[in-house]
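Subject: sequence -> structure tokens, single chain

Hey, anyone have a minute? Need the predicted structure for the following. Not urgent.
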Amino acid sequence: MENDLLAKLSSYSGKLSKGQRTIAKFISANYDKAAFMTAGKLGKIVGVSESTVVRFATELGYDGYPAMRKALQEMIRNRLTAVQRIEVAKSMIDDKELFKSVVGSDVQNLQATMEEFDKDSFDNCIDSIVNAKKVYIMGMRTSTALASFLGLYLNLLRDNVVVINNTAASEIYEQLIRVGEGDTVICISFPRYSSHTVDGLLFAKEMRAKTIAITDSPASPFSSIADICMYAKSDMVSFVDSLVAPMSLMNAIIVAVGKRNREGVVSIFEKLENIWTEHDVYESPQS
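Reply:
Had a minute. Here:
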């Protein structure tokens, strides 16, 4: 794979200086740690100067060390095990400022999501949801919560919304058995990507349904399959997946779908309020 940094290290090995080969050897053996090191820290660990690390990144064809580190982070996003995530978190999270570290990471994910927002893709996503005969929503593992949230609200805004349950692989096809042309299938997945969700997306494509992927980056395996891709950053926080930016994207999708049929939405929620009051769904406000 051309953009895989480890593959580049292998192909460039004969062109590197002795110091640069030392850097390459360390990264190959410790990519999970190197991906989150500054140029100075990496140089100190392998015994070379910071400028040697910067020149190393340039030699590999990157605009600078930050660009190389970003490429390395993208490459490993789906490779890190839960145990490796915990080890990486030791250098990323200040135990004395744990709350600020975690929330600060979520804020950065939100900011990055806003900066990379593609309005055309978003508008096409909303069109596909509004105009579909039937909408299927699929998210496995930690993305199950996102799929359930999106399904809950879309079911209030339109008919024929189905959330695919997180079950055995064979049962995914059973739940998608009637999918076809005119339907829209939304697949939600973030690192570590669910292979079952990939299988479901491929099946939906074969059945000629419109497909939407909500994932983290163009490097995601869903990007080359789905008709429409929406990206939200989901960098890891230790062994926990950060779903703040993806959830914010869900909110935007729900609001946009609702605005397409404002009168219908108002009517639905007026009926719901009467039902909720009649059946004591919510606690009554204290007088």
